[in-house]
Amino acid sequence: MSSYEFLIEGYDTVTSAVEKKGETFFVTIDNKVVEFYPSGDNLFNAFINGKRRLVAVARSQNGTTYVDIDSVLIELKEPSDDAFGSGAGDAGGEKDKVFAPMPGKIVKLLVAVGDEVTEKQQLVIVEAMKMENPVLCRANGKVKAINFADGDQVDTDSPIIELELAKQEQSD
Amino acid sequence: MSSYEFLIEGYDTVTSAVEKKGETFFVTIDNKVVEFYPSGDNLFNAFINGKRRLVAVARSQNGTTYVDIDSVLIELKEPSDDAFGSGAGDAGGEKDKVFAPMPGKIVKLLVAVGDEVTEKQQLVIVEAMKMENPVLCRANGKVKAINFADGDQVDTDSPIIELELAKQEQSD
Amino acid sequence: MKQLFNKILVANRSEIAVRVMNACRTLGVPCVAVYSDADRGSKHRFFADEAVHIGASPPRESYLDIEKIINAAKETGCDAIHPGYGFLAENPILVQRCIEEKITFIGPSPEAIRLLGNKVASRVKMADAGIPLIPGMKDSSVDVELYKKTAEEAGYPVIIKAAAGGGGKGMRVVKAADELEDALEAARREAKNAFNDDTVYLEKYIVNPRHIEFQVIADTHGNTIHVFERECSIQRRHQKIIEETPSMALDDDLRARMGADAVKVARAADYTNAGTVEFLLDETGKYYFLEMNTRIQVEHPITEMVTGVDLVVEQIRIAAGLELSEQVRNLTQRGHAIECRIYAEDGENNFMPSTGIILHYSEPVGPDVRVDSGIAAGMEVTIDYDPILAKLIVHAPTRELAVRKMIDALNAYKILGVKTSKKFMIDVMSHPEFMAGRTYTDFIEKHMNDRKLNLKVYQNIAVAAASVAAQAVPSSGAFSREGDTAITPSPWQTIGSWQIGDSINE
Amino acid sequence: MKQLFNKILVANRSEIAVRVMNACRTLGVPCVAVYSDADRGSKHRFFADEAVHIGASPPRESYLDIEKIINAAKETGCDAIHPGYGFLAENPILVQRCIEEKITFIGPSPEAIRLLGNKVASRVKMADAGIPLIPGMKDSSVDVELYKKTAEEAGYPVIIKAAAGGGGKGMRVVKAADELEDALEAARREAKNAFNDDTVYLEKYIVNPRHIEFQVIADTHGNTIHVFERECSIQRRHQKIIEETPSMALDDDLRARMGADAVKVARAADYTNAGTVEFLLDETGKYYFLEMNTRIQVEHPITEMVTGVDLVVEQIRIAAGLELSEQVRNLTQRGHAIECRIYAEDGENNFMPSTGIILHYSEPVGPDVRVDSGIAAGMEVTIDYDPILAKLIVHAPTRELAVRKMIDALNAYKILGVKTSKKFMIDVMSHPEFMAGRTYTDFIEKHMNDRKLNLKVYQNIAVAAASVAAQAVPSSGAFSREGDTAITPSPWQTIGSWQIGDSINE
After folding, report:
1. What is the pTM of this model?
2. What is the pLDDT of residue D246?
3. What is C210-444's CATH topology?
4. Cβ pair D300, D311 in contact under 8 A
5. Of A55, A103, C14, C307, whose CB is crowded by the most CB atoms within 10 A?
6. Which of B12, B45, B67 to mutate to test the interface with C (most CBs of C within 10 A)?
7. In this structure, are strands B43-48 and B51-60 parallel, antiparallel, or unpaired?
């Protein structure tokens, strides 16, 4: 039997125990057992309370595990020195920084430094894959800095806009 | 580049040279080049004289390689001490021994010791998979020995019938 | 929509179990699989919402054990059972037990199954209904002389058949009087083994016949329709291997008359649910009732392809008491469909059964290509069950295009580790007589006997593929790869020695 | 049968290229793929009988370069070109070049493409033919005041559209007068980028409309028919994501009238080959001609599912000069078909484009489930091309059953490494308004805005799956597995520490 510990963002720590009998994996979490039968490369039939779910799971070389359950995609990251325990992640943290969703060209900046912004407000339009993609604000706050101009090429690592978050957001 | 040598039953020795560039394999045989592009696990698109063929190839743990080309199944065996160079194989040699095609029950022996037999003649009926399967004679000859009786269970390793081959067959 | 059943138990295995579960999914009804020891890792087990282990590998200890099936249904709260084909599909005792347990049997009544399952009794019934029959014995007999007398009257050749039979088991064609006794003995023995019933009978053997069958569906409200014909003449040892629809032998008039007689047969038997009326059609356009099969048939998908009807969904709807919809009642045949059966058998060696572990498995995809299968890579094909591995079904605007599409599909269907008849079937469909639509039940005997495979053509490609595999493909074993001793040569240093071996009989 | 063409070049990529090649296979015509640098490892390249490299990844340097396409066709001896959809499919210059080079273009004439590709000119033509049009500008203009005046006359809301447009690009809805100028500017900019033509026009915006389109096919012998409608109202940012047929909004009378008008549109344009006439249908049953698309459309498979016609095969037959067959001329709608488009986009985060390497890929199978796709495990999804990865198409006797079947198919369609809108589409189809058939083009805006995904439900299963994966599944990289440092813990000794991260916006 092997045992794993997961720190769920915003929730508690979850511990799992995996036992393999024949080709079947029995995973115990919260005293409940989920059975996983291999059903092809990366595919498992998971029986949970008698209900079958086809689960796909794959691990990338950088340690991220991707799971598809009932068409919901969940990513689990192996801890790295700076990320683990800090609430970091694609969308989990850094609401004060606005990134392009993918490399592309800035078509139009819709806010200026000093503007008050609210959650879901459109901040900037980035063209990628032949479509104009509005980038939405993920928290209430104020525009602190704008690092690019209309027509600039942007990647996904440099924040286009930096915000000063409203107080109630910071403890989220 | 790697090089392999194949002894083709009844034909000459064939030498192949394999070179991999990127994901593509270039195989040279008889001064002709065949390109193999991977197209999934065990699958390749083979381009031969501009014509595409989807080729499946897998190797079993005992060293046999199975190839499907245009629905033709070809087995290539790695040499073992006794088999290599002797013309042995499933069907290639041992025409003087009659085996069951699979484990089953002898329903009826159709010949007796001393009988003259001809190619394609039915020798014995073996029941397997709920069907009666006639076992055919693979060469002209005479029945030398019968090692089982009606109703016996047989496996595929022990010859049911042994023949003395007619002269012209032995040099085949 | 109200759920038609609470839960359906599928009392079968492999491709047909998966097929039935697909229909359950379509209707939103949860389904339960049963599986034997040999099927612990089988596709149908994992395709179901739940699965119940019902015993050891021999069919009598699992799939043929009526009480185990009934218990599995009761345990899991199933209120209906679909039997698939084979196993208990035409067993009236299962239907009776279902009735007693208040479980709906998705199929006809036990009375209809009993009547039609007995070829002798059903012949009498159908003769009364005015359906044309093949001349022969009116009843079974143990008296060899009666067989001889009937054979003389009908004229040789004659055929001996098992009364409880099906699938070619217990059948023997007799060409002359001196072969009759041996054939009778063989047919009885095979019938006894297959059905535990050695009752056989004799009738005239129709020379150069076609096997034409009509799909019939009937609801419990008195609506009985036919869903056109299937041509199943391409058979080896009385086992169908290639089926198609429409038949090249039927014009609109003949189709209408045979279809009307098929409906008449179903009505005469008080038939409900899906069934198939089999006819022999001779060269002059005369047809004879053979039997009615009281189950969904292996080749049902070709009917689905040309009519757009999901026959298994219809079976479940009918069993739930629904009426045939208007849509199903007004059908036309669109284009041409062909099915090829992939058996675990060696098409290059007299169709000998083939067993082994499936090292590689992949299926063709694309519009109008359908694969019904119950297997996967890593599975072992054993001698425990029927050797059907999969069915390829294609649909195209014309017969010629359908043939082309099927050849393409067969070439893209890859299975390594067990042998099949893929190449044999391609050669059948490429034969000028097949292309011309002259498909008679003796087709293979007549046209394929001299068939030879020239391996030489493939030799260099095989060597090339093996060379690539030696470098690129790890050796395969079931799901486990322990003990793998694959040779993975380094560049420039390996001169391996290999031998090409093949499975050709010469 | 005589081969219809010597060889067909498929001037496209990904799923539609594979789809067209499937039709070539059906007809027994060899096909040639073209591919760019980015598509060296793509499915369409290896699905063809031959393949020609035509340049760098940016479309202008490969798939949009007419001379490269023409040269590839000439080099490989192709006597026909199928353009698929997008890229050069509606480019009259390609058609003209084909005519000059004596290569058959599988599609309409350059005149028809020119006429129908210009929305302004085609409106004039169709108004003359008596087809109902949406009130708006009769012609394009650079005069902002004219837009304002027309908007006032037609009444807000109004919509601005690119004259050369399609696929939602260059479209802007304007709700009030003070938004007009900004919207005009944005629409022109997007039109310029997408089509290199910033001509736009303005018309009345129909509130709560449905998007209904009719498939039309016309041969070169004067036969023009419609193959029924498709309902494509479920759109996000004017991009269709779910299509179905039949439409819940049409009764037999309305279907007949709209179908007759669709045929009238095609005739007015002297149209041959396959095309689609788009209408807006308002709540009162009034319909307005939008445009005619002169290509095979993304959503053509649902029409094929309910009618049994292979539209791409018909395109090729028509291009070869054949007449529509009797079978195609007498069609009925059978059952219900739905298509879901799988885009590389994050359905949980405002449909942001998603890129990455596909770590795992598997597709649903079974009767009446079709997957048209151009991808495979190991491929990288880049920003170079249209983000459509695959299309799932299902067919079932009723709409309700088709929805159920589609949800099942989406759940069985597994792709890991890029994000999709699978769950979003499931939630759309599970919405009571969708189930009731109330599908309007504002459906997503109106009903899906408050949608939240409760990840908590899936948390423990995800943790369980990750635990199993840590033990059983090696980490995946494109085709290469070098540098793999997967953790494979031994029994009893591993306590890993993991963190669950998700992609939800809150």
Report:
1. 0.81
2. 97
3. D-amino Acid Aminotransferase; Chain A, domain 1 (3.30.470)
4. yes
5. A55
6. B67
7. antiparallel
